[in-house]
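Project standup — Tuesday

K.O.: blocked on the structure for the chain from last sprint. Re-posting the sequence here as requested.
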Amino acid sequence: MENGGIALEGVRVVCDAMLGTLARWLRVLGVDASYSRAEDEHLLARARLEGRVLITADVALAERATRKGVQAVLVAPERLEAQLRTILVELRPRLDPFTRCLRCNVGLVQASREEVVDKVPPRVLRWAGRFARCPSCGKIFWPGTHVDGMRARLVRILREASSDPGGEPGEGVGEVSGDPSRGDSGWSGGKGP
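H.V.: unblocked you, prediction finished:
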Protein backbone atom coordinates (compact mmCIF):
# COMPACT_ATOMS: atom_id res chain seq x y z
CA MET A 1 0.00 0.00 0.00
CA GLU A 2 1.33 3.41 -0.89
CA ASN A 3 0.15 6.68 0.56
CA GLY A 4 2.86 9.00 -0.70
CA GLY A 5 4.37 9.43 2.77
CA ILE A 6 1.34 11.29 4.08
CA ALA A 7 0.76 10.86 7.81
CA LEU A 8 -2.54 9.08 8.41
CA GLU A 9 -3.76 10.65 11.65
CA GLY A 10 -6.40 8.14 12.62
CA VAL A 11 -4.86 4.99 11.19
CA ARG A 12 -6.24 1.87 12.84
CA VAL A 13 -4.84 -1.56 12.15
CA VAL A 14 -5.70 -5.19 12.80
CA CYS A 15 -2.83 -7.66 13.00
CA ASP A 16 -3.45 -11.28 12.05
CA ALA A 17 -2.79 -14.29 14.27
CA MET A 18 0.93 -14.45 13.41
CA LEU A 19 1.59 -10.87 14.55
CA GLY A 20 0.64 -10.59 18.24
CA THR A 21 4.04 -9.19 19.22
CA LEU A 22 3.85 -6.57 16.48
CA ALA A 23 0.36 -5.53 17.67
CA ARG A 24 1.71 -5.08 21.19
CA TRP A 25 4.64 -2.90 20.04
CA LEU A 26 2.33 -0.81 17.85
CA ARG A 27 0.28 -0.21 21.02
CA VAL A 28 3.48 0.86 22.79
CA LEU A 29 3.79 3.49 20.05
CA GLY A 30 0.19 4.57 20.65
CA VAL A 31 -1.23 3.09 17.45
CA ASP A 32 -4.75 1.63 17.63
CA ALA A 33 -3.71 -1.95 16.89
CA SER A 34 -6.16 -4.77 17.41
CA TYR A 35 -5.12 -8.39 17.18
CA SER A 36 -7.19 -11.30 16.02
CA ARG A 37 -6.82 -15.05 15.76
CA ALA A 38 -10.00 -15.24 13.70
CA GLU A 39 -10.27 -17.11 10.42
CA ASP A 40 -9.24 -15.07 7.39
CA GLU A 41 -12.77 -14.22 6.21
CA HIS A 42 -13.77 -12.96 9.67
CA LEU A 43 -10.54 -10.97 9.87
CA LEU A 44 -11.24 -9.32 6.50
CA ALA A 45 -14.82 -8.56 7.52
CA ARG A 46 -13.63 -7.01 10.78
CA ALA A 47 -11.04 -4.87 9.00
CA ARG A 48 -13.70 -3.61 6.58
CA LEU A 49 -16.35 -3.04 9.26
CA GLU A 50 -14.00 -1.20 11.65
CA GLY A 51 -12.09 0.70 8.96
CA ARG A 52 -8.79 -0.95 9.86
CA VAL A 53 -5.76 -1.67 7.73
CA LEU A 54 -4.94 -5.36 7.75
CA ILE A 55 -1.36 -6.17 8.77
CA THR A 56 -0.25 -9.66 7.76
CA ALA A 57 2.76 -11.77 6.87
CA ASP A 58 0.54 -14.02 4.75
CA VAL A 59 0.95 -13.14 1.04
CA ALA A 60 -2.28 -14.89 0.01
CA LEU A 61 -4.27 -13.08 2.72
CA ALA A 62 -2.83 -9.69 1.70
CA GLU A 63 -3.77 -10.36 -1.93
CA ARG A 64 -7.28 -11.49 -0.94
CA ALA A 65 -7.71 -8.34 1.17
CA THR A 66 -6.72 -6.13 -1.74
CA ARG A 67 -9.17 -7.92 -4.06
CA LYS A 68 -11.94 -7.36 -1.48
CA GLY A 69 -11.17 -3.65 -1.10
CA VAL A 70 -9.48 -3.93 2.30
CA GLN A 71 -6.23 -2.04 2.69
CA ALA A 72 -3.40 -4.38 3.64
CA VAL A 73 0.27 -4.11 4.48
CA LEU A 74 2.43 -7.18 4.01
CA VAL A 75 5.26 -7.50 6.54
CA ALA A 76 8.17 -9.91 6.71
CA PRO A 77 7.40 -12.82 9.05
CA GLU A 78 10.64 -12.76 11.00
CA ARG A 79 12.05 -9.67 12.75
CA LEU A 80 9.93 -7.31 14.81
CA GLU A 81 12.14 -4.31 13.97
CA ALA A 82 11.66 -4.89 10.24
CA GLN A 83 7.91 -5.25 10.72
CA LEU A 84 7.70 -1.98 12.67
CA ARG A 85 9.78 -0.15 10.06
CA THR A 86 7.46 -1.41 7.32
CA ILE A 87 4.38 -0.13 9.17
CA LEU A 88 6.01 3.22 9.95
CA VAL A 89 7.14 3.73 6.35
CA GLU A 90 3.97 2.46 4.65
CA LEU A 91 1.32 4.00 6.92
CA ARG A 92 3.17 6.82 8.68
CA PRO A 93 0.80 6.68 11.68
CA ARG A 94 0.65 9.44 14.26
CA LEU A 95 2.62 8.20 17.25
CA ASP A 96 1.67 8.80 20.86
CA PRO A 97 3.90 6.40 22.81
CA PHE A 98 2.85 4.78 26.07
CA THR A 99 -0.80 5.88 25.88
CA ARG A 100 -2.59 2.57 25.13
CA CYS A 101 -3.12 -0.56 27.18
CA LEU A 102 -0.77 -3.24 25.92
CA ARG A 103 -3.26 -5.93 26.86
CA CYS A 104 -6.52 -4.66 25.39
CA ASN A 105 -5.62 -1.66 23.15
CA VAL A 106 -7.78 0.90 25.00
CA GLY A 107 -6.50 4.43 25.66
CA LEU A 108 -5.14 4.90 29.17
CA VAL A 109 -6.55 7.41 31.65
CA GLN A 110 -4.67 9.12 34.45
CA ALA A 111 -5.02 7.58 37.89
CA SER A 112 -4.33 9.17 41.27
CA ARG A 113 -2.11 7.63 43.93
CA GLU A 114 -5.22 7.04 46.01
CA GLU A 115 -6.81 5.01 43.20
CA VAL A 116 -3.80 2.70 42.86
CA VAL A 117 -2.63 2.37 46.48
CA ASP A 118 -3.92 -1.22 46.73
CA LYS A 119 -2.98 -2.14 43.16
CA VAL A 120 0.76 -1.47 42.96
CA PRO A 121 3.69 -2.63 45.08
CA PRO A 122 4.50 -0.24 47.98
CA ARG A 123 7.97 0.52 46.57
CA VAL A 124 6.39 1.67 43.29
CA LEU A 125 3.96 3.87 45.18
CA ARG A 126 6.95 5.53 46.89
CA TRP A 127 8.94 6.42 43.77
CA ALA A 128 6.52 6.59 40.82
CA GLY A 129 5.28 10.09 40.21
CA ARG A 130 2.44 9.27 37.87
CA PHE A 131 0.02 6.45 37.18
CA ALA A 132 -2.40 5.50 34.44
CA ARG A 133 -5.12 2.89 34.30
CA CYS A 134 -6.85 1.01 31.54
CA PRO A 135 -10.57 1.76 31.82
CA SER A 136 -11.35 -1.60 30.23
CA CYS A 137 -9.23 -4.20 32.03
CA GLY A 138 -8.11 -2.13 35.04
CA LYS A 139 -4.39 -2.73 34.52
CA ILE A 140 -2.25 -0.04 36.17
CA PHE A 141 0.77 1.51 34.44
CA TRP A 142 3.60 3.71 35.78
CA PRO A 143 6.94 5.00 34.50
CA GLY A 144 9.30 2.07 35.00
CA THR A 145 12.99 1.34 34.72
CA HIS A 146 12.70 -0.90 31.66
CA VAL A 147 11.17 1.95 29.66
CA ASP A 148 14.64 3.32 28.85
CA GLY A 149 15.46 0.10 26.99
CA MET A 150 12.13 0.17 25.16
CA ARG A 151 12.64 3.82 24.28
CA ALA A 152 16.17 3.18 22.94
CA ARG A 153 14.89 0.34 20.76
CA LEU A 154 12.02 2.48 19.45
CA VAL A 155 14.30 5.45 18.77
CA ARG A 156 16.59 3.21 16.70
CA ILE A 157 13.64 1.83 14.72
CA LEU A 158 12.15 5.29 14.18
CA ARG A 159 15.51 6.68 13.07
CA GLU A 160 15.90 3.87 10.53
CA ALA A 161 12.30 4.31 9.32
CA SER A 162 12.71 8.07 8.93
CA SER A 163 15.74 7.59 6.69
CA ASP A 164 13.92 5.11 4.44
CA PRO A 165 14.40 6.04 0.78
CA GLY A 166 10.63 5.78 0.19
CA GLY A 167 9.90 9.02 2.06
CA GLU A 168 11.43 12.24 3.23
CA PRO A 169 13.68 11.87 6.28
CA GLY A 170 11.60 12.26 9.39
CA GLU A 171 8.42 13.05 7.49
CA GLY A 172 5.43 11.57 9.27
CA VAL A 173 7.54 9.42 11.57
CA GLY A 174 7.22 10.35 15.22
CA GLU A 175 9.72 10.36 18.01
CA VAL A 176 9.84 8.76 21.40
CA SER A 177 10.59 11.37 23.98
CA GLY A 178 10.04 12.17 27.61
CA ASP A 179 11.81 11.32 30.81
CA PRO A 180 10.28 8.38 32.64
CA SER A 181 11.91 9.45 35.89
CA ARG A 182 9.74 12.58 35.74
CA GLY A 183 6.72 10.63 34.55
CA ASP A 184 6.69 12.27 31.11
CA SER A 185 5.99 9.05 29.26
CA GLY A 186 6.72 5.39 29.40
CA TRP A 187 4.85 2.90 31.46
CA SER A 188 5.39 -0.32 33.30
CA GLY A 189 2.37 -2.46 33.81
CA GLY A 190 0.99 -3.62 37.08
CA LYS A 191 -1.83 -5.90 38.00
CA GLY A 192 -5.37 -4.96 37.27
CA PRO A 193 -8.24 -5.41 39.71
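K.O.: great, moving the ticket to review. The longest helix spans residues 147-162. The first strand starts at residue 12 and ends at 15.
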